[in-house]
Amino acid sequence: MEINAESIKMTNIHEEFFKKYLRVLKLARTPSREEFQKIALVAAVGVLLIGFIGFIIYEIMLVLPH
């Protein structure tokens, strides 16, 4: 009996998860070209900024005496 109750509980948990998952998928859409370009630009600027900060820290560590 106990195994069956746990099995039903797990099935309900999985059903709820997939219902939420499908709801999100229904809301999702492909971005327009303009939206994609803006997102790509912001991501590229972020990567370059983090890389530049890392490079500056690297150069400072080389200059500082041990």
UniProtKB/TrEMBL annotation:
Record field: transmembrane: 39-64
Subcellular location(s) of the protein: Cell membrane; Endomembrane system
Membrane-topology descriptor: Single-pass membrane protein
Protein's GO biological process: intracellular protein transmembrane transport; protein secretion; protein targeting
Function of the protein: Essential subunit of the Sec protein translocation channel SecYEG. Clamps together the 2 halves of SecY. May contact the channel plug during translocation.
Family under the similarity heading: Belongs to the SecE/SEC61-gamma family.
Protein name: Protein translocase subunit SecE
Organism of origin: Methanofollis tationis
